[in-house]
Amino acid sequence: MSESVKAAIASDSTGNVPGAPTTQVIKRHTLATRLWHWTNLVCLIVLLMSGLQIFNAHPALYWGEQSDFANPFIAIHARTAEDGERMGVVRIAGQAFDTTGVLGLSDDNGQLRERAFPRWATLPGDKWLTMGRNWHFLAAWIFVPLVVAYLLYTLLVPQRRRALFPTWVQLKNIPRTLLDHARLRFHHEADYNGIQKLTYLLVLFGLLPVMILSGLTMAPSVNAAWPWLTELFGGRQSARTFHFLCATALIGFFVVHIALVLVSGVFNNLRSMVSGRYRIQVEAHDGSEPRHD
Prior knowledge:
Blueprint: H1 3-10, E1 22-27, H2 31-56, E2 60-61, E3 74-80, E4 86-92, E5 95-98, E6 104-108, E7 111-115, H3 129-156, H4 158-164, H5 168-172, H6 174-182, H7 194-216, H8 220-225, H9 227-232, H10 236-263, H11 266-274, E8 277-282
Antiparallel strand pairs: 1-8, 2-3, 3-4, 4-5, 6-7
Helix pairs in contact: 2-3, 3-4, 7-10
């Protein structure tokens, strides 16, 4: 009798082999957390695409108070190349990069047209600044209160703090976790690992507050009521640059987040954020309690 058949016979009704690590399905995310997650996902997509529509109206970023067209920090535009052909260009700190077809010059209803971000990346697709602003403000009015409520909930509720703030042991295990991730070895446990917790803290208490506050500085009424907020960012144009860079960093976070969801068990991860149920590995000596957030 082969070893695999012996193992199958020795398995219990749940498929777990005695003496080997077993699995257990826990309730990982509450209904409120799941609704918060998916609502924010929709809001962030709308905010990003409508924000690119707004950016297209003036596709350059500066530092300070004034917009100096001669010396932008970042600019996306089109120009005529030496061979006479039009080309898209992204200029960052004086260095130019050819981005024809994606940024600066892209397909628009079958023709190459000058626009910073292509029509498939903006909301709406056509050049329509007013509608882009309407979408941006609508999503912001839903997104900002949800983020503020979540941050207060995390700070005020001990159970939530324990779920997000790493323990000393988790911090010490970060090098080992990094090595495991590099080898595509993922441990499905009730608690987040140290890298996940530090990343979520950086996004929740770093990127999102800076993005929200820098966005507020672009509202004339906020400028009049809280001029110190604009000064905090070093001027209106600097605040606009901070806003754009934070959005870019969030896109990077989403790309890494989705990649890890795919390679670490897409069904288990998606199920936990849809139904709340998540399958974990349980060692024989593991006496940890499932986490409910």
